[in-house]
Design a protein that fits this description.
The protein has 6 helices and 2 strands, in the order αααββααα. The protein is mainly α.
């Protein structure tokens, strides 16, 4: 190739690059997925297991707790949601929150029956509006907590409420 053609090619390329730089730049559109690929895959697996009759471990846990429910709130004595197929889970309150205590999230004793629609004891308990010590079912909660304590992962001990932790320390000192 003659020298002039190579130089003209370069000059042409430079001219195109300069022209392109004057054009307005297109904005990149970033799309944040609502759920990660990993989460979608996990949900799909859980769905197939649920369709086969197994359900997730938490689903099976809730169904087992429903069989143990009395239909009465352990704190105020009002009616719970035991008979409502769609809402019975709302009356099953975890003593220790499942998001913090993954090791005992589905422990058979990590629950208490609290009303949801009447006086909303469940939400009040979860939001710390009702203090554990003030609850009418405090003795039951302590009894269940003491039985569960050995199963709690030591990494999760920092999340145990002071009232319960204090009680455990006092019990082990005796």
């Amino acid at each position: 190739m003659p020298f002039n053609l190579i130089t003209m090619d370069r000059a042409e390329n430079l001219r195109r690059i300069k022209e392109a730089s004057r054009l307005p730049k297109t904005k990149k559109v970033y799309k944040i997925p609502k759920k990660s690929v990993k989460k979608l895959k996990q949900e799909a697996e859980e769905k197939t297991v649920a369709n086969k009759g197994g359900g997730s471990e938490l689903d099976r846990w809730f169904q087992s707790r429903r069989k143990e429910m009395t239909g009465i709130c352990a704190h105020c004595g009002e009616k719970s949601s035991k008979q409502q197929d769609q809402w019975y889970r709302a009356s099953i309150a975890h003593l220790l929150p499942k998001r913090l205590f993954k090791s005992i999230a589905t422990h058979p004793l990590n629950w208490v029956e609290l009303c949801f629609w009447e006086k909303n004891c469940h939400a009040n308990f979860d939001n710390n509006t009702l203090d554990i010590i003030e609850m009418n079912c405090y003795d039951l909660m302590i009894e269940r907590f003491i039985a569960m304590y050995p199963d709690i992962d030591p990494k999760e001990h920092k999340y145990i409420p002071d009232a319960l932790l204090q009680y455990v320390k006092n019990e082990t000192d005796i």
